[in-house]
Structure formats: C-alpha cells, structure tokens
C-alpha cells in the first residue's frame, strides 16, 4: 500500500507547526484560538486516560467535536465521528464494530442509552486549560460514517494523512483567509474544510444544525468569511434566503452532489466577485479533483494531468487511486470497493458528451437527496411491510432544490375483502404515514404512484430505471 | 384552481405531512421563515410540477431564486404564462 509521505504526526503537532495560533475557531455559542485549543480540553472529566483507546465522539456541537479531535488525535487509537443527524439507534452497532472503549458526548439521550460502551465522558461547554502528555504519539485511525445498504452505516477508516493535503502548507494566501462550510465537520466535506483551516492556521466559522440558514449567513458574514463550501442543495437554500447578501465570499466551493449549470450560474450571479469551483470528493475515494472553469462536469484532461491522483473511467464509472482514499471499512458487513491495483470504485457514473465528462448518477441506484444518501432497497423494504402492499420500486426524481427526491411505484395486493380497496389517494397517504413512522424524512417518498405491475427482469430482479 | 391557491394548498399539505408549523403565508414572508425545510420545498416544487405542469426552477438556468412567498407565487405565475 502506498502510504502518505511526510505525514504530520498528529493534528496537534500540525496545528502547532502551522504557526498562526491566534486565528480562531468560531462555534455557535463559543470560540477559541488554535492556541487555546492546543492548550485545553473540552472534557468535563479529564481523569480518564484515553491513550490507545477507541473513542466514539458523539456531540451535537461541532466546536466540541473539533476540540476533542485536536485533543485526541495522536493519543487515541481510534476516533469515531458520529454525526448529529444519524439516528442514535445505530450507535450500539457502530460502538461494537469500532470496538469503542470510551464515549465522549454532550447528548444526555446518548449518554443514558444502552450503548454498550464501558466508559462515558461528558463534554464541557467551553475549553478549559489542560495539558496532555504528547511525548509519544501514535497514528490515530479516524472513522467516518456513511450510509449503508443494510440500514447500518458503513465505517470508513482514514488517518490524518489520508484526510489532509500536503499542498495546504504551501498556501501563501492563507493569512487573510477565513473558512466556513455549510457541512457538518463530522461529514467528509466538512472535515476536509476543518482540516484545511487547522493545518494552514486560518480562522474558521463552524455551522450548526440548530441554527437557521439566515442566522448562519449573518454570523458567517459578521465574522468576515472569505472561503465557503457546501453542497448544491446548501447553496440553493442560501440563495432562497433574504440574508444571502450577508456574506461576500472570494471563493465558493460545491461538492457532495452532482453540480448542475443552473446552480453554478445562480451562485455566480449572487456573488459576482467570487471564484466558484466544484470538486469531486467522497468519504471512500477522498478528494479527486477541483473544477475551476465555471462549467458543470469536468474536462477529460483532469483524469490524466493530476500528479497526485490516478483516475480512470471503467464501465462508465469513475475510479480513483490516491493517498487520500480511505483504507478500509471496519467490520465485515461491507467489502471496501478497492480493486487489486488500488483504485477505489466511486460508484458514480459519468458520460462523455462533446469532449467533457458529466456525472449521470449512481451505478448502485443510491439516491442523493440534498447530500443524504438513500438506498432504494431500504425504502422498498419499509413500504413492503405495509399490509396492503404487494411490491414496490423506489426511484429518483430530479429536483431543482435537493438534486433528487425519492418516489415510489407501488403495486397493491388484490384484496378480496377490499380492505385496501379504497381510493388510491387514501392508500397513498396511509403508506406515506407508515413510512414517516419508520424512516428518516429524506428517505420517505415525496410521491407514491399506484401502478398495476412492476417489470421483473430475467435475473428475477426489478428492472430499475431512474425517472 | 388558480396558481396562487394551488401553491397555498401545497404549502399547507406538505407542512402538515412533515409536522411543520407553517407561518401565515403573506406575500412578504421570507420562504426560509415559512417553517418548511429544503426537503419540504423540494416536495412542494415536485407536486406543483405535477399539478401546474411547470417547474420554473429547472426551466431557466439563470433564474434568480425566489426569496419571499410573493416572489415564489410570481415565479410560478410568470412561468405559467
């Protein structure tokens, strides 16, 4: 395996080396300089030794998660970043798969649940001074969670070396840069920006799931944010806000979903002074490339002229080999999609049209609803549990707001007793109500079409065609 | 049903389905203060495409996004012309 060269040994020492220690990390209700973060601890109880432990980090607040990461990288054996939007019901599975020894949390409902982790440490609200012995640091494994087919999340393993980019250290413009992102920093897109800010010693404004878009834009603007990233869905939402003009960024980046020309044009029109770029990145494949020409898709030269990343299109799917890819999945439920040559299969399908590649969707049918991945099979399994349903097929419908929406074709049981023989509208509502009780909101179909039959292919599987 | 009534009906329907508290739908209400999130808006837009036969968000790549509820209605009324 090709290992990253010249790795910073830990986040702590890399921030120290970056040198701009007076720059600040701004959370929703607290902030601290990088120096304070280096010299402090967010843990309310610091008596427990985390050396060599597997730590599950499940905080609501991004600032606390950031502080804990700086404190624990190089000390803990493994850090699992549990995102706040992931249901706590997955926590026992994640804890078991990651062999977690310690839970660090600010969420009472998680601390008190039956999570199966031996020890629990509460987070404080702010940083308080503390010193951790750092004479012997180890390479910590960072675990990022992504959506899986079985309903359980997948646990993708990275290290600081695979998440960081060595080019960041040489960025001369960083002194006046203030980063922000709509992403949560427990997701790959957000973590990438957090690390960029931390390792170049720039200030950063963290977003918060508790904060309305207007308030976030106002706070980002008041803190003078110059560089900001998000998914196309994040940006569509920002453009719908009367507070869109509160920020005046020099640089805007989009990632995490297919970027269309409309959103590129609309963002550029709102922020004429900004360079608008988009990037291909995923938790498994890492950062592939940046596209800076203002157009959707990417030119084929990007596949060839990238000294750090090898890319190829095979069977219409983009594959990536670089030092930024994840190493493996923890646990045995999922096979990591890496071939013998070290290429990670992104599962994203592309099409060459008039000399440019365009993303067309997912080979495995995963539907990306505003950055949240939805496996059609999981939604179908839920719909099929409704007593009136014979079978169902879930597919994507294009959406100008969230990129895609989930819709379902449903075949009803022919019921002699006419229990479900009421109007289609009534049954549709009943099935939707049932789904809402079982599934996260973005997985619930936006519409249900009652159809007389679904096509079954020769393989015995549903013939899937995206709308 | 005219465009405005259809839009109001869809806002109410989607808000109810998603347990969202809908603000009074006045013309100067900022859409992001309406109580609906991005997912709800996406569903409203998809349903309006079905019922009104237009999707002004997708039809014009350079259209500015509506900011208030009044903008939203005009956005659809202009597209339907």
Can you give me a brief rundown of this structure?
With 467 residues, chain A is an alpha/beta fold. Chain A has helices spanning 11-18, 34-38, 62-72, 91-97, 108-111, 160-163, 188-200, 213-222, 232-239, 261-270, 301-304, 376-384, 424-438, and strands at residues 24-26, 31-33, 40-43, 54-58, 78-81, 102-105, 119-129, 141-146, 154-159, 178-181, 203-205, 227-230, 251-254, 275-282, 286-291, 310-314, 317-321, 328-329, 344-353, 356-362, 367-369, 372-374, 389-399, 403-412, 447-450.
Characterize the structure shown.
- By secondary structure, chain A is of the alpha/beta class.
- Chain A has 13 helices and 25 strands.
- In chain A, the strands form 5 sheets. Chain A has an 8-stranded mixed β-sheet. Chain A has an 8-stranded mixed β-sheet with strand order 3-7-6-4-5-8-9-18, with helices on both faces. A 4-stranded antiparallel β-sheet of chain A has the order 16-17-19-20.
- Chain A is globular and about 70 Å long.
- Residues 1-8 of chain A have low confidence and may be disordered.
- With 81 residues, chain B is mostly helical.
- In chain B, helix 1 packs across helix 2 (38-52).
- Chain B is globular, with a radius of gyration of 12 Å.
- Classes of the chains: A alpha/beta (467), B mainly alpha (81).
- The A-B interface holds A 212-214, 233, 236-237, 239-242, 244, 260-262, 265-266, 269-270, 369-370, 397-402, 405, 407, 432, 436, 441-442, 446-447 and B 17-18, 30-33, 38-39, 41-43, 45-47, 50, 55, 57-58, 60-68.
């Amino acid at each position: 395996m090709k290992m990253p060269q010249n790795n910073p040994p830990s986040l702590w020492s890399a921030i120290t080396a970056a040198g701009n220690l007076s720059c600040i990390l701004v959370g929703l209700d607290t902030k601290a300089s990088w120096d304070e973060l280096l010299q402090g601890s967010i843990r309310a109880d610091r008596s427990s030794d985390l050396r060599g432990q597997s730590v599950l980090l499940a905080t609501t607040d991004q600032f606390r998660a950031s502080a804990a990461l700086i404190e624990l990288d190089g000390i803990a054996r493994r850090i699992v970043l549990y995102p706040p939007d992931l249901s706590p019901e997955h926590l026992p599975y994640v804890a078991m798969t990651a062999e977690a020894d310690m839970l660090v949390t600010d969420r009472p409902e998680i601390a008190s649940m039956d999570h199966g982790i031996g020890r629990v440490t509460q987070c404080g609200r702010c940083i308080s001074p503390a010193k951790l012995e750092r004479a012997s640091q180890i390479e910590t494994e960072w675990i990022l969670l992504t959506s899986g087919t079985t309903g359980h999340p997948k646990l993708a393993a990275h290290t600081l070396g695979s998440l960081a980019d060595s080019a960041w250290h040489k960025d001369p413009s960083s002194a006046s840069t203030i980063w922000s992102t709509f992403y949560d920093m427990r997701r790959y897109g957000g973590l990438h920006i957090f690390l960029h800010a931390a390792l170049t010693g720039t200030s950063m404004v963290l977003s918060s799931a508790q904060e309305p878009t207007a308030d976030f834009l106002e706070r980002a603007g008041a803190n003078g944010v110059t560089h900001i990233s998000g998914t196309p869905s994040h940006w569509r939402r920002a453009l719908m806000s009367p507070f869109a003009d509160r920020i005046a960024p020099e640089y805007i980046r989009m990632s995490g979903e297919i970027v269309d020309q409309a959103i590129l044009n609309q963002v550029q029109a709102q922020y004429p002074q900004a360079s608008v770029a988009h990037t291909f990145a995923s938790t498994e494949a890492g950062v592939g490339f940046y596209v800076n020409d203002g157009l959707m898709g990417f030119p084929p030269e990007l596949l060839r002229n990238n000294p750090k990343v090898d890319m190829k299109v095979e069977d219409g799917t983009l594959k990536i080999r670089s030092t930024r890819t994840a190493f493996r999945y923890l646990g045995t439920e999922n096979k990591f999609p890496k071939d013998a040559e070290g290429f990670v299969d992104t599962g994203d399908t592309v099409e060459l049209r008039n000399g440019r590649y365009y993303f067309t969707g997912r080979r495995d049918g995963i539907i990306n609803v505003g950055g949240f991945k939805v496996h059609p099979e999981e939604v179908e399994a839920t719909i099929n549990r409704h007593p009136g349903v014979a079978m169902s097929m879930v597919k994507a419908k294009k959406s100008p707001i969230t990129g895609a929406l989930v819709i379902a074709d449903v075949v009803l049981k022919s019921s002699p007793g006419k229990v479900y023989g009421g109007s289609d509208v009534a049954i549709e509502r009943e099935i939707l109500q049932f789904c809402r009780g079982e599934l996260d909101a973005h997985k619930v179909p936006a519409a249900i079409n009652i159809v007389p039959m679904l096509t079954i292919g020769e393989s015995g599987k549903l013939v899937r065609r995206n709308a | 049903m005219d465009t405005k009534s259809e839009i109001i009906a869809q806002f109410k329907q989607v808000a109810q389905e998603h347990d969202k508290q809908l603000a009074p739908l006045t013309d100067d209400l900022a859409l992001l203060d309406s109580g609906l999130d991005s997912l709800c808006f996406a569903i409203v837009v998809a349903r309006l495409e079905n019922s009104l036969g237009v999707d002004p968000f997708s039809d014009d790549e350079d259209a500015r996004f509506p900011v208030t509820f009044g903008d939203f209605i005009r956005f659809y009324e202009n597209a339907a012309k």
